[in-house]
Design brief:
There is one protein chain. The chain is 25% helix and 34% strand. The protein is α+β, with helices and mostly antiparallel strands. The strands form four sheets. A seven-stranded antiparallel sheet has the order 2-11-10-5-4-3-6, with no helix packed on it. α4 packs across α6. The protein is globular and about 65 Å long.
Length: 330
């Protein structure tokens, strides 16, 4: 079996590549952004990011859910932070105020320009997992996630509608976001690195399936199901714990990544089961992060131009790199 070439090493180190990724990749695809229960009630809002783009999600007093670019139309400041309940969104810089549908309500000490509003983006919730997409022609998310949702129900036995967010843990990793994505979409390294924490993963009975912009991995014997949603959303489901771990990988810069791990459980799962799974998964992540940082050291060294991937064992990274290359080179 012949190896396949990877993307160039300098794609992990050049700021101009990251700028192009923000333009052509992060702005074009669905991404996980957080807990939709934060905007369950009228007059509520929450904030997040799609790559470099700040977003705000609101539910107005009529109950309509909306997503918008969270950048004031006046001078470009971020309008609001965090989450909460309010009837308008007021920019903290000069006080320009927007209704919860994004239309401009008031411009401080001047007449409000006609037709000004925060740009709209697509948002949808799967259970209480909230996803957003800035592309004007965003595909139907439930269609995109169809196979994953079926396997979550049939393989893992987890009901997404019953999940609640229990914990959220951040890790800042000294590595390009692509190195982190690639680590988590292959189990070629699992027998060596995770022989104790993930016994059997990556071996016989561990199935990887590639779709257009998604990957699913599952292992029926462990009631495990995994989704990778291009470019930076990963979801692991553990049926034995009635748990789902959603992770968003957001670039800080070309050499740093913010990994957010959201731990979701069926509402009836005990605190003891929750603690056990979170501690175990944080141990797995602790085994992975030094590997990502080692890759970043190598690709930044000047002694590595591009690598060679195993087309089956590393089908996940290869698929990811093909999608990325198509976006950046078309």
């Amino acid at each position: 079996m012949s190896a396949v070439e990877s993307i160039p090493a300098d794609w992990y180190t050049r700021p101009e590549i990251l700028a192009l990724e923000h333009e052509r990749v992060f702005g074009q695809h669905w991404q996980y952004v957080g807990d939709a229960s934060l905007v369950a009630e009228p007059n509520s809002y929450m904030t997040g990011r799609l790559g470099a783009m700040p977003i705000v999600v609101t539910r107005d007093d009529a109950g309509v859910l909306r997503g918008m670019v969270n950048v004031c139309r006046h001078r470009g400041a971020v309008v609001v932070d965090g989450c909460g309940s309010r009837k308008t969104l007021q920019c903290r810089y000069h006080g320009w105020t927007y209704r919860l549908d994004g239309t401009l309500h008031r411009a401080t000490q001047m007449s409000a320009p006609e037709g000004v509003r925060l740009p709209q983006i697509s948002v949808t919730a799967v259970g209480n997992l909230l996803f957003a997409c800035a592309a004007p022609d965003a595909p139907d998310l439930e269609v995109v996630l169809g196979q994953f949702l079926e396997q979550t129900r049939d393989v893992a036995g987890v009901d997404i509608q019953r999940l609640e967010l229990r914990q959220s843990i951040d890790h800042e990793i000294q590595a390009n976001w692509k190195a982190v994505v690639e680590n988590f979409v292959e189990c070629y390294h699992c027998p060596l690195i995770h022989s104790v924490t993930l016994p059997g993963y990556g071996g016989e009975g561990y199935d990887v399936e590639i779709q257009e912009t998604t990957q699913t991995q599952h292992m029926e014997s462990d009631r495990f199901n995994f989704l990778f949603l291009f470019p930076n959303t990963q979801v692991s489901v553990y049926g034995n714990s009635s748990a789902l771990i959603a992770r968003a990988l957001v670039p800080v810069d070309e050499k740093r990544t913010l990994l957010t791990l959201d731990y979701w459980f069926h509402s009836d799962v005990s605190a003891e089961v929750e603690k056990e799974l979170v501690e175990w998964f944080e141990t797995v992540v602790g085994e992975d992060l030094p590997l990502c940082e080692s890759v970043q050291s190598g690709v930044s060294s000047g002694g590595f131009e591009r690598g060679y991937l195993h087309p089956e064992q590393e089908a996940g990274p290869w698929h990811f790199q093909r999608l990325l290359s198509a976006a950046l080179t078309d």
